[in-house]
Amino acid sequence: MADLKEKQKIYILAAIFSIAGLALYYSLLLKPQFSSFIAKNKEFRIVKERVKNGEALVANEAGIRRQHDNFEKQASYLEKRLPGQDQISSLLEDFSNVAESSGVKILRIKPLEAPAPLSKQKSVNNSYTEFPILIEARAGYHQFGAFVNKLEAMDRFIKITDIDMAGTDKDPRHQDIKIRIITYVLQ
Asked: Assign residue 152 a region: left if phi > 0, alpha if psi is -120 to 50, beta otherwise?
C-alpha cells in the first residue's frame, strides 16, 4: 500500500509538472506565436485588399484615361472662359470685334480698375478676381440689342451690371451708350 501511495504521489507530481510545463510552453511559445500569427494575418488581409484595389485600377486604366481626358477638356474650356491677366488685351479686342459685327461703334473701352498685384487683389475666390470694364459706344437700339446678345454668347464669363443710354441731337436714330461689364480673370 505504501508503494501505491508513493506511485500516486509520483503520478500526481508528474501530472502537476506536466500541466505546469504545458502552461509554461503555451505562455512562452504558443501564445506569442498565435499573437504574431493573428497580427500578420491582419496585415496580410490589408495588403491583399490593397493589391485587389490596385488590380482593379490597373484593369480600369482605359476608364481612368477617358476620365483624365474629359477633365483636361473641361479645364481647357474653363481656361478659355476665364482669361488670365495677360489675356485682357485679347478680351478687349474680342469686345471690339463683337461690336463691329453688331454694327455698334465703340468710342472707348476702358478697364475701370488697373489689375492690382495678385497679393492685393480683392478675391472673389482663390482662383479668380472680378475685372470691371466700361464700354462707351454709339448705336441704334437694334444694333445694341444684337451687341448685348453676342456679348452674352461669348466663350468668356461676363456679367453686364449697368447700361446707360442717352439720345443725341445730331442723330436721333443712334444713342450714346455706356455699358459696364464685369469679367473674371484667373489669378
From this structure: alpha
Is residue 129 within 8 A of residue 121, CB to CB? The reply is: yes
Say if pTM beats, i.e. exceeds, 0.90: no
In sequence order, the β-bridge partners of residue 132 are 182
Cα 165 from Cα 185, distance rounded (Å): 27
pLDDT digits (tens, 9 = 90+) for 137-147: 888 888 888 98
User: Is the CB of residue 132 less than 8 Å from the CB of residue 180?
Assistant: yes
Provide DSSP, 43-105. HHHHHHHHHHHHHHHHHTHHHHHHHHHHHHHHHHHHHHHS-BGGGHHHHHHHHHHHHHHHTPE
Question: Cell numbers 501505491 label which residue?
Answer: 4
For 104, the grid coordinates are 455698334
Strands, sheet with 175-186, edge to edge from the N-terminal-most edge strand = 105-111, 128-139, 175-186, 158-167
β partners of residue 183: 131, 158
Q: What φ, ψ does residue 167 adopt, rounded to 5°?
A: -75, 160
